[in-house]
Specification:
Elements: E1 2-6, H1 10-19, E2 26-31, E3 44-46, H2 51-61, E4 66-69, H3 76-89, E5 93-96, E6 108-112, H4 115-121, E7 128-132, E8 148-153, E9 166-170, H5 177-186, E10 191-195, H6 204-212, E11 215-219, E12 229-230, H7 233-244
Parallel strand pairs: 1-2, 1-4, 2-3, 4-5, 5-12, 6-11, 7-8, 7-10, 8-9, 10-11
Bound molecules: NADP nicotinamide-adenine-dinucleotide phosphate.
Length: 245
């Protein structure tokens, strides 16, 4: 059986590394190509399919039997496309979505619906902001005056975008609580803007903010399609085993 994993997350990478050893499974992995990720198998393809139609054409041309959507929780377009394509072709589809972070005692979160809502709310209380939302949506913050931004991303933004006023650091997680605390203190940060990505790799900044009494503007996840879902790689592997037998 041919399994397609829609990837772009650590979980997708781990699932691919395990699924490749399953008997009777031929693996394909698809990446958006947002960052220069290491190629995880010879079967990796990179780049958009061309919307739902392109995805359907690809699934048919490659004779895909099973689909696991292990994309980032904020990559909602590809997830909706996958749900439509799978339904149209009658393919079993599983979403592998890590659980959200929940606020605990001591957290000072302001939850907002989307990135624009974060832009709208920041000027009412923030002066020095740590932006940890990746590089795709960072430009919308350049409409804000009077706030200094520390921006962290894995790779440089595209050359033609105008960054908000501040400092850019290029780093890939996981990060430790202590190094996050040092960074926040060094730059006198009063507010963090984060997506509710979940997972451990970038959670240290949330603990650091809690311990330092720093505010977090937490961007809620976009709506994902209905359907079968698991939260971890083991659950996804079990699903693959079950569906193929
Ligand atoms: P998206 O809005 O869901 O996807 C936009 C388009 O990118 C899709 O319609 C599809 O193009 C292509 N695409 C996305 N994932 C793909 C995959 N695995 N294989 C092939 N094509 C794929 O997602 P996004 O633009 O990548 O990101 C949206 C949000 O997710 C951002 O907030 C970003 O920071 C976050 N995020 C994404 C990734 C990632 O690897 N994608 C990783 C970390 C964070 P076609 O319509 O042409 O098929």
């Amino acid at each position: 059986m041919k399994l397609l994993i829609l990837g772009g997350t650590q979980e997708a990478r781990e699932l691919a590394e395990k699924a490749i050893n399953l008997s009777n499974i031929e693996l394909k992995v698809s990446l958006a190509g947002r960052i220069n990720q290491a190629v995880i198998s010879q079967q990796t393809r990179v780049g958009g399919f061309g919307g739902v139609t392109g995805l359907i054409n690809y699934l048919e041309a490659e004779n895909i039997d099973l689909l696991v959507d292990a994309t980032h929780p904020f990559a909602a377009n590809i997830s909706h496309n996958a749900a439509i394509a799978a339904e149209k072709l009658g393919l079993p589809l599983l979403m592998l979505v890590r659980s959200e972070w929940e606020s605990v005692t001591g957290d000072k979160w302001v939850e907002v619906e989307n990135i624009q809502a974060a832009v709208d709310i920041l000027p009412s209380f923030a002066k020095r902001v740590f932006l940890t939302i990746g590089r795709q949506e960072v430009t919308v913050f350049n409409q804000i005056e009077n706030i200094w931004f520390l921006m962290r991303m894995i790779e440089k933004p595209l050359l033609d975008i105008v960054l908000p006023k501040g400092l850019l650091v290029l780093e890939r997680g996981p990060f430790s609580k202590d190094s996050e605390k040092q960074l926040l203190q060094k730059h006198n940060i009063d507010t963090i803007v984060s997506k509710n990505s979940g997972g451990n790799a970038t959670y240290a900044k949330i603990i650091a903010a809690r311990e330092l009494g720093i505010q977090v503007v937490m961007v809620k996840r976009p709506m994902l399609p209905e359907g079968e879902r698991v939260e971890d790689v083991e659950g996804a592997l079990e699903w693959v085993e079950r569906v193929r037998s």
